[in-house]
Amino acid sequence: MGKDSVQVGLLGLGTVGTGVMQILQMNGKQISSRAGIDIVVKKILVRDKQKFRAVKVDPSLLTTEAAEILEDPEIDVVIELIGGLDVRWYVEEALKRGKFIITANKDLMATAGAALLRLARDNGRNIYYEASVGGGIPLIRPLKHSLGANKIVRIVGIINGTTNYILTRMDLAHLEFAEALREAQAKGFAEQDPSNDLEGRDAAYKLCILANLAFNSNLHCDSVYVEGISNLQQRDIIYARELGFTIKLLAIGEELPEGLALRVHPALVPLTHPLAGVLFENNALYVEGNAIGEVMFYGPGAGAMPTGSSVVADLIEVVRNINHQVENGIMEISFQDKNVVPPYELASAFYLRMQAKDQPGVFAGLANAFSEEMVSLDMIIQKRSSEGKAEIVLVTHAAKEKKFNAALAKIHKFAGIMAINSVYRVIPK
Ligand code: NAP
Ligand code: HSE
Fold it and tell me: For the chain, which domains are there?
């Protein structure tokens, strides 16, 4: 006789876990009808059973013992919403005990996804991780299935809600960095360790996951070149806007003839570019495929309910699989190792802000350094000087990064330049 319900164990009842429980309570009937069978959350692992919860749950569901979920043969699905890498053991143990996994954990999927998916296959199970990238935006399923006919050549996105929220508030409300970060944390967007967001590691993990799906590759997330936004100054946002740009933390993956190029870094984005209009915690991903052309996915990239929406969508799929015994293939197993192109071999335009002595020959010295390295200048502005110091802002045309860096090294040694304050890549208008 078949089952009359599928039993679920939840690991974590924080921001996302709360969203999942709220969605199950709000739309439970429709969700069970779509899944074809009732879904019952049997146990929820937390650290502190007495803590106030933003969602009402029967206190008897809460446990501080992982074994009550992992060792319960009636639980078919484990939803991991604790985060971090220490949960790997829980996921492995659950798979070995024949449970399906749903996770929102990009750190885990980016660093151990390949091994975990292999373990899932060996145990006839699967791991669903739609919520690990882009919060509520469907990205994993489109890359795996809907765009499967394409050779993907490029993906470009804003895939960290916390930093996009901070940059938006700094740009539009002129908030200082620390205040904007506090707001993002209060809204539940930030990671337990917010330096993962600020230093670009969260976006790098997500890019790694997306790129492996887009390019059928097996790259380790160390292959992603990463720069964060923690040194970004209000001044650069103001100057960027004067030049017709805003500053965004971009994640870019490209398949070039020489190999894959994967990078996360802040960049000046023209105000007319669709990514410039992606504000607050929203995320967006451009995908360029050789059949579809360009397609963009946009929506809330973090937060309880949007992320919960992706988790519960995975849950419906898992439960349908269990209920209907649908084929459960893991296509990621066939992905291949590919060459990685280092950033200095790539080309980009650059924005540069520096402090110079207000004296003859400074512009000429700069122009020489760039022309010796064949880097052409697009814009150069000297801000009004004070106390013998001038602030110079310039934007180059696209050049190989190693040529730009060679020019920069010459500028560093040039006596007329007192300090190089900021260097950012620029997306062409
Ligand atoms: P969170 O608010 O910090 O919640 C973590 C939950 O895990 C809490 O309920 C906590 O218990 C529990 N927990 C932590 N350590 C534990 C341990 N050692 N044993 C038992 N329970 C433990 O985290 P979150 O923001 O929901 O994030 C969860 C996952 O979703 C992470 O992988 C994150 O990267 C990912 N994610 C988050 C968002 C977002 O917008 N927040 C979006 C997409 C993906 P207590 O409640 O008792 O402290
Ligand atoms: N900290 C992440 C972000 C949560 O801000 O995008 C969503 O993955």
Answer: 5-136+304-334 (3.40.50.720), 140-300 (3.30.360.10), 345-426 (3.30.70.260)
